[in-house]
Structure formats: C-alpha cells, structure tokens
C-alpha cells in the first residue's frame, strides 16, 4: 500500500483577495478612543452596577417582559449610547435590563439606524 506522504500537494499558496488599505491617523485615533472604554465592562464596579440594575428591574426584560433567572441571559443595556462618555456610561438612570435576544436583535438594529 502506498504511503500518503508520497503524494505531492496540488494547491499552491493562496493570495489574499482583499488588500487591506492603510488607515489614516484620524481613523486610527477614533478607533483607539472607541476601544479605551471597553475595559470598563471588565471592572468590579461595572459588575456591581449591572447587578443593581438587574435587581432594580426584577430580572425582567424592559422591552418584551420576559423574566429570566439566568443572569447570563440578561444585559444591562445603556438606553442612550454612551459612545465613550464616562458619566453616561456609569449613570444607572441610563441603564435598563434587556434579555439577550432583544439586545442582540432589536436594540442593535436601533443603534445602527441612529448611528448612520
């Protein structure tokens, strides 16, 4: 029986189809600034605030009304997008509870629509 190692590869190296265009300094700065606030979500302060909001809203989605005991299926969502504004990010009056499905569908469509 022949060994597979005796077969030669038939495919050559694949070239990338899309060349990445260099980004300008303004775009780079904007992307970097947008990323800096993401670390806030990993803080103990955020986790505590998130739980305060979930308890305040009785673990109930404020859009569809579903009650969810599994907190991993709930999102403490910003009513008004903070876009890096620290005061707006930490404001508990700007937060509400949404189930993951409402947040990932309806809310994301709304934010994309208003951003454009």
Which features does this protein show?
116 residues, mainly alpha, 2 strands
Please give a structural write-up.
This protein has 116 residues and is mainly α. It has a domain at 42-116. The protein has 4 helices and 2 strands. The chain has helices at 25-36, 44-56, 86-90, 100-115; strands at residues 74-78, 95-99. A two-stranded antiparallel ribbon has the order 1-2. The longest helix is centred in the last third of the chain and has 16 residues, at 100-115. The mean pLDDT is 85.
Radius of gyration: 22 Å
* Outline: extended
| Element order: H for helix, E for strand | HHEHEH
Helix content: 25-40%
Distance between the termini: 63 Å
Mean pLDDT level: 85
- Give a short account of the largest sheet: 2 strands, antiparallel
Low-confidence stretches: none
Which structural class fits the helix and strand makeup?
Answer: mainly alpha
How many beta-strand runs?
2
Strands of the widest sheet, in order across it, are 1-2
Number of helices, counting only DSSP H or I runs of 4 residues or more: 4
Q: Could you give a quick summary of the protein structure above?
A:
This protein is mainly alpha-helical and 116 residues long.
List the helices and strands and how they pair.
Layout: H1 25-36, H2 44-56, E1 74-78, H3 86-90, E2 95-99, H4 100-115
Antiparallel strand pairs: 1-2
């Amino acid at each position: 029986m022949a060994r597979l190692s005796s077969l030669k590869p038939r495919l050559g190296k694949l070239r990338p189809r899309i060349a990445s265009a260099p980004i300008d300094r303004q775009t780079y700065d904007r992307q970097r600034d947008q990323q800096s606030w993401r670390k806030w979500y990993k803080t103990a302060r955020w986790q505590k605030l998130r739980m305060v909001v979930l308890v305040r809203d009785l673990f109930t989605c404020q859009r569809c009304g579903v009650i969810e005991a599994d907190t991993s299926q709930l999102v403490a969502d910003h009513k008004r997008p903070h876009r890096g504004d620290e005061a707006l990010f930490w404001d508990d009056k700007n937060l509400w509870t949404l189930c993951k499905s409402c947040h990932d569908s309806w809310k994301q469509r709304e934010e994309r629509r208003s951003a454009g």
